[in-house]
Amino acid sequence: MQGQQQAGHNPSPACIVLDGPIIVGAGPSGLAVAATLRQHSVPFTILERSGDIADLWTNRTYDRLHLHIPKGFCELPHVGFPPDFPTYPTKHDFLRYLHSYASRFAIAPQLGRSVTRAWYDAPASLWRVTTTSAAASSAAATEYASPWLVVASGENAEVVVPKVKGRETFAGEALHSSEYRSGERFRGMRVLVVGCGNSGMEMCLDLGEHGAMPFMSVRSGVHVLPREMFGASTFGIAMKLLRWLPIQMVDRFLLLVAKMILGDTEKYGLKRPKLGPLEIKNITGKSPVLDVGAWSLIKSGNIKIVPEVESFSGNGARFVDGNEMAFDAVIFATGYRSNVPSWLQDGELFTDNGKPRARCPSSSSWSGPNGLYCVGFSGRGLLVSGAEALMAAADIAGRWLQAPISPRCCMHALPPPPPPPPG
Ligand SMILES: Cc1cc2nc3c(=O)[nH]c(=O)nc-3n(C[C@H](O)[C@H](O)[C@H](O)COP(=O)(O)OP(=O)(O)OC[C@H]3O[C@@H](n4cnc5c(N)ncnc54)[C@H](O)[C@@H]3O)c2cc1C
Ligand SMILES: NC(=O)C1=CN([C@@H]2O[C@H](COP(=O)(O)OP(=O)(O)OC[C@H]3O[C@@H](n4cnc5c(N)ncnc54)[C@H](OP(=O)(O)O)[C@@H]3O)[C@@H](O)[C@H]2O)C=CC1
Ligand SMILES: O=C(O)C(=O)Cc1c[nH]c2ccccc12
């Protein structure tokens, strides 16, 4: 494939020095970087741990998922959604779009390649990236090297499941929201959903609609907003108002209208955070819930709000208020984290819990330290990831044009890596 580097057939251990950047992850962010590099005629290699592109959307989301902000805010650079897509495309629509995007830009990632380590080899001025392969035939580690490394492995790479006392003693089924597909098989069951983010809320709705009895455990509360107000998307209205008004004022407006439409959510056990919905998203990354129907089931009592779980027992849970209840199943809708700290030996760009310290590479420039870039960690959705991809790819293209090197296979040509740091 023209411009797309292939790993070639190298006996292991091998180190393949690449002419263009290495991109970790073939989700929307990685694809957007690749498409833009393609437009700049810069070759690239994408390393993707799963067997296909967009693993989150393909394998780790529930059936009824739609984009919950309008399609115009979720398009990747260069190609819009087809005009016949609904305002809130389904996950299947979105996946169709991503596959056609990948083929349009001839993006063929190295699939089944999980990045386990990346470090900067200063004497060689190269990022050295170790991958393991899921395929039994190529179980050996392969090493890739490039002057540029783009981290696009996502904010949702690993699941977060809290260590609650007695969790392993619970006899019913326990799963994370990424493993939930539909409420179908929970019909007639008492299901505890831990967490009240967008996943927890929509799973409760789905369970309720499939004849299960959903209970939603709430720890610190959340902002619930109607997905639409005055016939337009709440998100779109907020983005327009932000052009003219300070964020606190937009938040006050959103909360006023939310109260008019939904009533007082606190009366039903959903405490609102002190910071407003947009401000808290900006500062902490905590997403407001854009309601797609759960709220009316909460009001009608078909979804019951319960407090934070204190411990689990064989047949149920004890809550922090001392009450105990029996459940048939527990779903942890407790969110995600990135996995970058487990493989990127950098220490500068990311905190230990996997969030970038500042906009990557820095607040003033897209020239990362030593050619390191990260895309898709803003906590502000697909549109911002796309904008980051444009900037990162343009920056890399400028550097690539100045210092092209030819791809070569360098078995043992580079010195062996230093041992990983203790711990
Ligand atoms: C249920 C759900 C719904 C969402 N809905 C929206 C929405 O409507 N609008 C919106 O803007 N955002 C939404 N988001 C946010 C989501 O982050 C983005 O939609 C989008 O998936 C981000 O793309 P990404 O490429 O940055 O990350 P991801 O989609 O997570 O892609 C990262 C890729 O990197 C791969 N990877 C991870 N670690 C490694 C490794 N070590 N080695 C190799 N490959 C690796 C993964 O397998 C994955 O394919 C949603 C998130 C969730 C969980
Ligand atoms: N249709 C769409 O577009 C959808 C979009 N999304 C997006 O995906 C991302 C992830 O969403 P989601 O999966 O809901 O995760 P979130 O991180 O948004 O929510 C996690 C929830 O779990 C709770 N929680 C976490 N740890 C614990 C704990 N130890 N004990 C009790 N409760 C805990 C949190 O409570 P606390 O606040 O107290 O920490 C919070 O209520 C978000 O950006 C979201 O907007 C998700 C679903 C659908
Ligand atoms: O689903 C998410 O959390 C998103 O990333 C989309 C998004 C970005 N900024 C927001 C502000 C309010 C609600 C959703 C989002």
TrEMBL record:
Keyword presence, NADP: yes
EC numbers, comma separated: 1.-.-.-
Gene Ontology terms describing biological process: auxin biosynthetic process
Keyword field contains Oxidoreductase: yes
Catalytic activity: indole-3-pyruvate + NADPH + O2 + H(+) = (indol-3-yl)acetate + CO2 + NADP(+) + H2O
InterPro entries from the UniProt entry: Auxin_biosynth/cation_transpt, Flavin_mOase-like
Record keywords: FAD, Flavoprotein, Monooxygenase, NADP, Oxidoreductase
One GO molecular-function entry: N,N-dimethylaniline monooxygenase activity
Reported cofactor(s): FAD
PANTHER family the record matches: FLAVIN-BINDING MONOOXYGENASE-LIKE PROTEIN (AFU_ORTHOLOGUE AFUA_4G09220), INDOLE-3-PYRUVATE MONOOXYGENASE YUCCA8
Family under the similarity heading: Belongs to the FMO family.
Descriptive protein name: Flavin-containing monooxygenase
Source species: Zizania palustris
